[in-house]
Every structure is written in C-alpha cells, then in structure tokens.
TrEMBL record:
Keyword Ion transport included in the entry's annotation: yes
Protein name as annotated: Sodium/hydrogen exchanger 1-like
Keyword list, A-Z: Ion transport, Membrane, Potassium, Potassium transport, Sodium, Sodium transport, Transmembrane, Transmembrane helix, Transport
Cellular location(s): Membrane
Entries under Gene3D superfamilies matching the protein: 6.10.140.1330
Protein's UniProt keywords contain Cell membrane: no
Superkingdom, natural source: Eukaryota
Reactions catalysed according to its record: K(+)(in) + H(+)(out) = K(+)(out) + H(+)(in); Na(+)(in) + H(+)(out) = Na(+)(out) + H(+)(in)
Recorded topology in the membrane: Multi-pass membrane protein
Pfam families: Na_H_Exchanger (PF00999)
Transmembrane segments: 92-114, 126-146
InterPro entries: Cation/H_exchanger_CPA1, Cation/H_exchanger_TM
C-alpha cells in the first residue's frame, strides 16, 4: 500500500516519527498562508474593495487556524474515539465563538474609549499609545481565554 501526501514527504525529509496530532497541527499552520501571497500581488490603491475582502478573509482564516492549532494541541489524539472527536469539535467551536465575541467586545470598547476619552484627542503620541494599549488588551483577553479553556 502506497502512502500519499504529507506522510510521504515527511518520510523523505527524514524528520522522524510524527503522530496524528502533529500532522493536524502542521495542516492548521499551512492553512493560514493562502491569502498572504494574494495580498502581495494586489494593490490597495487600485482595487480597495478586493484588497479589503481578501484581507478580511485572511484574518478570519488566520484566526481559525490559531484556534484549530490550540484545540489540537490540547488533546491527546493517540486514541481517537467518537467522544474525543465530539469534545474536540465542541472545544473548537467554543474557542472560535468566544474569541470572536472577545474581539468584537475589545473593538467596540476601543472605539468608544478613543472617541470619548478627552486626554488623547490633542496629542498624537497619547492617541497612538492608547490604540497600542487597546490592541494589547485584546491580545491579553484572547490569551486569558485560551489559557483558561485549555487548562494551562
């Protein structure tokens, strides 16, 4: 029986033995790279709508890949049965929807604070620092969410 795909490539590269979880994690990482090359070809000034659509699809694709990678890393996939598969799917959906809601919350909070907060309006340095802190807030919220869900 001939082995196809990634297993054949990794055997030829002499990487060593990999388990099913390793192959799934590599697949999740490779899935995030499809729109990066397309964005390099497109010009934002000539086709702004197409550029925005491809960029948005790439962000969602990357976020899904990160959630899938984290979900794969949290399970022991050496003995897969239907219960583990359902638990994996539930964990993935929970992480996906939780991170989406946290992102929406952080975005709305950032927009509200930047619009209403007075001390950042007349200073470019303060406004940029505030935006950086708000971006860091969304990162921290995501990390806390992932860590508490995955039991780290």
């Amino acid at each position: 029986m001939k082995i196809e795909g990634a297993t054949q490539i990794f055997k030829k590269l002499d990487i060593g033995s990999l388990e099913i979880g390793d192959y799934l994690a590599i697949g999740a990482i490779f899935a995030a790279t499809d729109s990066v090359c397309t964005l390099q070809v497109l010009n934002q000034d000539e086709t702004p709508l197409l550029y925005s659509l491809v960029f948005g699809e790439g962000v969602v694709n990357d976020a899904t890949s990160v959630v899938l990678f984290n979900a794969i890393q949290s399970f022991d996939l050496t003995h897969i049965d239907s219960r583990i598969a359902l638990h994996f799917m539930g964990n993935f959906l929970y992480l996906f929807f939780t991170s989406t809601m946290l992102g929406v919350f952080a975005g709305l909070l950032s927009a509200y604070i930047i619009k209403k907060l007075y001390f950042g309006r007349h200073s470019t340095d303060r406004e940029v620092a505030l935006m950086m802190l708000m971006a860091y807030l969304s990162y921290i919220l995501a990390e806390v969410s992932f860590s508490s869900t995955l039991g780290r």
